[in-house]
Every structure is written in C-alpha cells, then in structure tokens.
Amino acid sequence: METEILIIGGGVLGAAVARELSRYKGDVLLVEKEVDFGWGSTKTNMCIVCQGADTLEFRPEYHRSRLIWDSIPLMEPLCQELDVPFKKVGELALIRNNEELSKFQKLKSRAEKLGLTGHQFIDQDSLRQMEPNITREAIGALYDPNIAIVDPVRLTIALIENATQNGVKVMRETEVLRISREANQFEVETNRGSVKCRFIVNAAGISVDKIARLVNSDDFVLYPIRGYVGILDKNSGGFIKHEIHMRPDAPGQMNILTPSVHGNLFFGTTMQPALRGDCSATGRIAEIGLQNVRKILPDLSEKEIIHSFAGFLMFRNWEVGWHECVVQASQKVPRFISICIGYPGVSAAPAAAREVTELLRREGLRLEKNERFVPIRKAPPVFSELPEEQQKELIARDSRYGHVVCRCETVTEGEIVEAIRHGATTLDGIKFRARPGMGRCQGGFCTPRVVKILARELGLSEEKITKKGRESRLLLYKSKELLEAQL
Amino acid sequence: MKRSDIDVAVIGSGPAGMAAAIRAKEEGAEHVLILERQEQLGGLLHQCVHNGFGLFYFEQDLTGPEYGHRFAEKVKDLGIQVLLETMVTQISPDRQISAVNNREGVLRLKPKSIVLAMGCRERSRGQLNVPGTRPAGIFTAGTAQRFVNVEGWIPGRKVVILGSGDIGMIMARRLTLEGVEVKAVVEILPYIGGLTRNEVQCLHDFRIPLLLEHTVTEIHGQQRLEAVTIAKVNKDKKPVNDTGQMIECDTLLLSVGLIPENELSRMAGVALDPLTGGPVVDQWRETNVSGIFAGGNVVHVHDLVDDVSREAEIAGTWAARFAKKEEAEKEKKILKPGRNIRYVVPQTISAQHDVTLYARVKDMEENVTLKVGDIFSESLRVVKPGEMLKIHLSHSQLRQLKDDAVELSVEGAKRRQNG
What we know:
The complex is a heterodimer of chains A (about 475) and B (about 425). Chain A is of the alpha+beta class and about 475 residues long. Chain A has 3 domains: about 1-85 and about 150-220 and about 315-380, 3-Layer(bba) Sandwich (FAD/NAD(P)-binding domain); about 85-150 and about 225-315, D-Amino Acid Oxidase, subunit A, domain 2 (D-Amino Acid Oxidase, Chain A, domain 2, 2-Layer Sandwich), CATH 3.30.9; about 385-465, Orthogonal Bundle (Arc Repressor Mutant, subunit A), CATH 1.10.10. Chain A contains 14 helices and 22 strands. In chain A, strands 1, 2, 9, 10, 11, 12, 18 and 19 form an 8-stranded mixed β-sheet that branches. In chain A, a hairpin with a 5-residue loop joins strand 15 and strand 16 (about 265-275). Chain A is globular. Chain A starts with a strand and ends with a helix. By secondary structure, chain B is an alpha/beta fold. Chain B has 3 domains: about 5-120 and about 260-325, FAD/NAD(P)-binding domain (3-Layer(bba) Sandwich); about 125-255, 3-Layer(bba) Sandwich (FAD/NAD(P)-binding domain); about 335-410, Immunoglobulin-like. Chain B contains 9 helices and 29 strands. In chain B, helix 1 runs parallel beside helix 8 (about 305-325). Chain B is globular and about 65 Å long. Chains A and B meet through strand 17, helix 10, helix 13, strand 22 and helix 14 of A and strand 7, helix 3, helix 4, strand 12 and strand 16 of B. Strand 22 (about 475-480) of chain A pairs antiparallel with strand 12 (about 155) of chain B.
C-alpha cells in the first residue's frame, strides 16, 4: 500500500489533521489501532472547550497556550460545518476568600493586557441567581463567557467522516508495529500489512513517544498523567448551568463540574502521574472525586453518579504545574511530525491541525488546493432532540425510528442502524455514536437489544459481537453448549 | 376506542400493570389501555423461567411466564386495549401522555386517570463504583438472565456474582444448571440481600460458595474479564488490608439492588420518597398528582410478585373510580418510619379503612417487637432487610389513632452488628 501522508492515530488530533489535509490534493491514509475513533484520551475528555484557567493563565511564550487561544474562534464554525453539538455555557471560577480574589484580580488584569476580553467579576448575590445550588462558601466568581462544551468523540467521528468525504482513506484495527526509513520514504509495518509513505503525522495519543522511538526520534519526553472523571445522572443535569471551576485544595487535584451537551453533568477531580495505560479507577480516587465535587455541590447524593472512568494524557514537565505540548517536526528524521497536546487536546485541535499542515509544508509537502473539498458534513438524526413534527416525518419515512431501544436516552432502532451504516461495529461503537447505554441504567435494558440489531445488520452471529473489538466478545457460548461439552 | 375516550391508561404490563388494568376494568372503567414497550405483555416475567410465582395469589407454584400468561389471558378476555412496542416518552402533570411506536409514530393521549406500573431497574457498575478496568463480561444479573433465558446465550463459563439479591442467587443456580462454574456469590453485608428461600434453594442446594462481608475490590482484564480481586470488609464496609484474593473468571454478574423506575413520574411532577425511590402514595396508591396512581415495584421494590400484583390492584381500583369521578375521602394521617425502619408504604393512610402496610427494616435484628404507634404490636423472632414486613391494620384499630402522624418502629432486642 502506498500513500503520500500517513496519519497514525484516530483521536481528535489525528482526525483534525486528516480533515485539514483533505482541503488539499494528495493521498492521505489514517490508521487507528482501536476498532473505532476517539477511544483513547479523546473519549475521556471533559468536553470543555478552552477551560477558563487555561485561557486566563494564557502565556504567549508557551506553544500550547497559543494553540488553545488560536482555536477559540475556529471551534464554533467547525462544529457548525460538521453538524455536531457546541454549546456556550460560560465558566464561573469560584472565589472563596480574599486570597483567591486577589489572585484572580491579578490574572484578569494580566490577561486584559494580553488582549483577552470578556472576563468579569460576579458578586455573591448575582452568583446565587446564576447558580442557586452551589456552595454558600463562594463569595463571588470570575465569569468567562467564552467557555463552551462539545462531545469530543462525536466531533472526532465527524472530522473523520468529513475527511473521508473529501478523499482521506482510513483503516481501523491497524496498529503500527515497525517503521523503517528508506531514501525518500518510510515503510510502515502494521498488523494489516505494510504502508509506504513520504510523510508521517504521529498523533498516537498516549503512544506518541513510542511511535517516535520507532524512527529513533527522541526529541521529547512525556509523562503519563491519569485523570478521573465522573458522570452524573440527567436528573442532576439542571443543578448547574455553567461550567464551574474551584481551585483545588490539594496538589494533583482539580475541581471542575460542567454540564455536558447531552444533559448530564461531568466532574473531574484528580490528575496525577500513573503507570501508562492503567485506566483502572481506584476506589480511593472515586472517593476523593465525590468529596471534591461536593465542595461545589454540597447536597449531591452519591446515587447520582451513573458512571466514572479514568483517562490518560501525556504531559511534558508536569512538575511545574503547567505543561507544554508537542507539535513539531523531528530534529533528526525528515518528514516526521509529532503532535500531542496533553490537555486539553480537544480545545487545541483546530489550530494544531493547521500548524501540522504548515509543518508538513516546511518539510517539503506541496499544498495544492482540493477544489472539490466540501466542508459540510451532515449528522445522522437524533430522534430525542427533534421537534414532534420531524419525529413523525422520520417514523413515516422509516418505521425503525418509532422503535425506542434505549429507554434512558430515548434512542431508536433507526439511530442504531444509522450508526452501524456510519461504521459502528461494536457495542461501545454504537454507544459513543448514538448513546444507547450511556444513561442511568448503563445498558441494563438495551444491551441484549443492541447486540441483536448489530448481529442482524452485520450479518454475524450474536456470539461474534464484541464490546470494543478484538477479544472483547460479550457472549461466549450458546445455550446448552457447555453441558454438551461435559457429556 | 377513540384515543380521546380513554378512562384509565396503564404504563407497563408486568405483574403490576396487568393486575391494575384488570382491576380497573372490573371496577367499571370502560376504556382501559395498557402501554407496553416490549413485543408482548408480561414485562420481565418472560425471563423469570424459575418457579415460586403465584404461591399466594393463585395458591399455586408457577413460573414467571405462567404467572404472566394468566393475567394476559384475562386482559384479552376483558377487552382491555393494548399497545405493544410502544414507549411512553413523557407524562405531563395534567395527565397528557406522549408515546412512540413504529406503527402510529408519535401518539398523544389524555386519559382520565393513569396508573404508573413501570417496575424497577438494576443498579449498575457505575453506581457501585467498582474499581478496575472496563473489559467485556460484566453484566447485571437481570441482563444476563435475559441473554440466558430469552436469547439463548451463556455469557461465560466461570462466573462470580457480586451481591446476593434474588436475581443474582437465581442466576447462580440457572448458570450452574447450564454447566457454568459459579465460583462465588460475594455479599458485602453480613447477611444476604434476597430471600432465605433463595439462599437455600439456589446456593446451598447447589453448593455455591457464599462469601458474606466480602466485596470485589478490583476488576482485571483489558478485553474480556480475566479475574476479580475480592477482599473481606470491615464494619464500615471498607476492604481490610491483606485479605485480597484473586479469582479467575470470565464473567461478573451484579445483583446489588433494584431501583424503582420513575423517570416518567418525575416528568409528571410526582413527588418521590427518597427512602423507597418511588412515589409518595396514599392508601389508594394515588400520588401527589391528582389522577396519577402507582403500584408495584415502581412504588417500592417488593420481594414477591404476588404482592406486586396485589398492590397494583389497589391502584387500578382507585384509578377507575377516579375516572368515574368517585374519589376517596382525603383525610390523611402520615406514617413515619421509626426505629430500625428503612421505609413504610403507603406514606399516608385514611384511618377509616383497613390497610396493609409494607415496610423494610434497616438492619437485621432478633427477638423484636414491631409497633405501629400504640395501636399495634407484634413479637417477631427475626427481622431482615431482605424480607419485607407486612402489617394488616383494621379500621377499628385505626380509629384509635389520635394524632395526625403515627410511627412504625422495631423495638426491644439487641441489634445484631451490621458489618
């Protein structure tokens, strides 16, 4: 197989680069080792675009800071073009004492000198009106109206879909094993055969340094950092309206609570160095998570937590409390670009993708406009979000939209079939695309039904259906099979 | 039947919904309609292929499908309207129902009264916060029950069950009969969560190890579950150091509690009792929203299906009377949970009519006295959270009540240590 550019990694960054490159002529292939897109750091993102502390502590000398800042004006139009949810919620950074107040005052005036506008101080009474359920300890807040929320996995899938519309090729379940360099090209060996390419964009997420080492490019060192996120039931979705940020009381913690575009609340509470890939959320972390989120919402019942998970990010220089990103061409290996933002990768993705394109140009890529580039991608219908008239039309057109499969999120069979048509092949693939199993019963009701639809649409036996690809089959034996084996 | 003429609409057709609809019809409601999300009447009864159903209601030992079939036949005979594969998506406080199906699209109904009979759902891993990785092979016991008994699939061959709820214990037996090795049933409390009869018939009779005061502290495996670590817990239900042991298994079932399914109730403005998770109801199973009644596991989780149907019949009766504009008297006395009582249903009583109270204790205790104010007392050898208390009070007893509120409590005896 041959391509001009190979992108390694189908997370939000790889997908954004693929979509950006599809504006130009030339063959682009993206490989993803998982069975679907956005399943690494992307899916554990808190969904916040440009969290306030990042914009407020804007440091022009830092690369990552510039990318975040440059992405702000790009994100909303991007989400519009790709037909994915984007919601401006604004951030309230809570102030609990005079010390915090003066710190925020300094940050705000520094930020204003740098040209950031829109921040304003909110007094206690106004804060009560804006957020009646939050802690009485807050004496005020710094309000940042620019903060928005997105669905990172949907954004990633939309970027991939739009990129493929415009000619990019993608391969899933394709893991890069070895890379060798020849005169003017790379030969990349994968579990699905080898790929010859001239340029490599290494967007491999938590494996970005491992991939770089495959070509002996060791320009950067990264440290794995584990974050912990909890999801609250939609019943508590109305408890807050803005993203709420509280200064953490202990190092290695963060205290953020935010609405999601789907009506839940997300909270993030710890960020600590850990063994790479060890996504196990320990009981202790879960406990700290609940304690911290109760500092913001004192009356929150633990029964409202429907799900929690840990995710990984790759940071440079964690010790200083402010990390730098990697968006660079290798010093040693020509035509090899690495990209890793760490946190927040989603917020920085639009500007980072442009920068990667520029780096490729400097490495010798000829950028010739793709005249047939179409920036618009249409999302499949979301039944529960449509007005009644459109729901009726949809069911009249395809009766499967009248069959609700997931009670908690009101997901119809029509949406599940459409998710499969768009590339979902697994239970989790359906979950991230169409949301059955994302609700309060966590798939208790819909799992057998979704498995059945998947098997039918893919023409497979239900035994072959997996949770997330590879060896993750859900149903191992037929009824009576084990008994017969014992006879 | 015109959709505008519905007297009583029943949401759900499990043992509660069908019983409520039948009683409503028998009570004289002309147009009774059942809305059911599945392909057939019966709710979860279809997957409950074990026996033990109907011992009180029919005085016969039936399986779940048999129990459901009897009600379904009666629904048909009485000419009760049924809309299958129809998901109710919304109920408004003025009793307007929105529903969706693939034949008529989006439906709007305005019945004179409504019976909520949506049943309950299982607590999930997310709510338990079980630490560890996210491999395939972790199911709630009820989901596994559907796979095994309805779809014909066995999730795995080496199983650990966390929690000793009834469905978990029943699945331990069911899977053993399928040739699966059930390695242990692990319960965090010092006593089982379900019925004693299930402990005997499902665990002891099949020599399935029951580990009390233990819990799963970690899940192992990236793709498919490979093992779980279990550990002993202390009085605060926290794992004790150095007691962890790894058990190799490919499947973990969760049977750690049921939650009344009240999303629609919330939309309708129905007040919920945080102790039961279900609507606050009066003696007639009417909620705070006029004309909206509730019965069965949507109100509180019962132990026996027979009680589910009986309770729903009360709701069906009074929903029919409401539709005919015959309302119950509104005098209400409040029932309060007292010492060692987790909850009591109904939450208010009229004090003019006989009533059966359903209650659960918080902790297991021996040699106790169950009291309702000073009008009722009964000695009990043992009370357990897993076994519901039923107290029948006659109207003559109730007439002795002087105050507007009365307390139900468990007195005397030494409390058995919890944990």
